[in-house]
Automatic annotation (TrEMBL):
InterPro entries from the UniProt entry: Cyt_c-like_dom, Cyt_c-like_dom_sf, Cytochrome_c_Oxidase_Subunit
Domain of life according to the entry: Bacteria
Keywords annotated in UniProt: Electron transport, Heme, Iron, Membrane, Metal-binding, Transmembrane, Transmembrane helix, Transport
Lineage: Bacteria, Pseudomonadati, Lentisphaerota, Lentisphaeria, Lentisphaerales
Protein name: C-type cytochrome
Pfam families in the record: Cytochrom_C
Keyword Heme: yes
Length: 269
């Protein structure tokens, strides 16, 4: 009597298959977790590198801007009319000027002298040249205050004028005022003045016009009268900028002038 051997391979195969599937499933899960962790780590590193790159680019941009600003500042200084001036010599020369214009460039009401602090160096130098060469202050009967400046300017060389202007640039004196006027009415009149002197009375280098905000009201009125009556700006060949002021001043009454001065006072900071 023969008997067939029992087939034990089937259960073993099935068992092995389940074990293999389990191992594969566990392996895939582990691989997935490892891949996920690796991806997260890589993304974190990429983000860190991107942030570092942004900071580097920002730093380079700021350095470039600073370099451009510094270059512009150096260029402006080189173009300044007082580039290379000796402020200490200017200070010594200014001691005589202080007699009329005040130790801090604030002007003096008793002498009807203007404040100088805050005025552009270019304008100061040009006016000193005008006084020295008779463009201003040549006629005491018409311009008593100007005639007092003429002999002072004649004592100065071109270098002296540059040094004095540089020193005046360090002064901070505030003008004193003596007149009254209607600032609102003056504001309407000032619209035309703003074309050359700026909306805030700051002056415009391109027009070679002076700043007005630290000029005493009495001085503004006296100079408008001088322009109106031909004491200043009568000869374009000698004073081109002044000649542009003359027709403007001829349009103004004395009341207009006081109102303008009253409004200009409100522009001072």
């Amino acid at each position: 009597m023969s008997s067939k051997p029992k087939n034990t391979g089937g259960p073993l195969v099935i068992t092995f298959s389940f074990v293999l599937i389990g191992m594969l499933a566990f392996g895939f899960t582990g691989l997935a977790k490892t891949a996920k962790d690796s991806y997260a780590k890589n993304q974190s590193e990429i983000t860190r590198l991107q942030d570092a790159q942004k900071l580097e680019l920002q730093s380079r941009s700021e350095k470039a801007k600073a370099a451009i600003a510094q270059k512009a500042e150096l260029k402006a200084q080189a173009a300044s009319p007082v580039a290379g001036a000796n402020v200490e010599i200017g200070k010594a020369k200014y001691m005589l000027c202080a007699t009329c214009h005040g130790p801090n460039g604030e002007g003096m009401t008793a002498l009807k002298s203007p404040a100088l602090a805050g005025q552009s160096a270019e304008y100061i130098i040009r006016q000193l040249q005008y006084f020295k060469h008779g463009v201003r202050g040549a006629d005491p009967a018409k311009d008593m205050q100007g005639s007092m400046m003429a002999p002072m300017a004649k004592m100065l060389s071109d270098d002296d004028m540059t040094n004095v202007a540089a020193y005046i640039g360090t002064l901070t004196g505030k003008a004193q005022h003596t007149l009254t006027g209607d600032a609102n009415a003056g504001k309407a009149k000032y619209m035309l003045c703003a074309t050359c002197h700026g909306p805030n009375g700051e002056g415009m280098p391109a027009m070679k016009s002076p700043g007005l905000t630290n000029l005493p009201d009495y001085y503004i009125v006296s100079q408008l009268q001088n322009f109106k009556h031909g004491v200043r700006g009568a000869d374009p060949a000698k004073d081109m900028q002044g000649s542009m002021m003359a027709p403007m001043a001829k349009m103004l009454s004395e009341e207009d002038m006081k109102n303008l001065a009253a409004y200009i006072k409100t522009l001072a900071k």
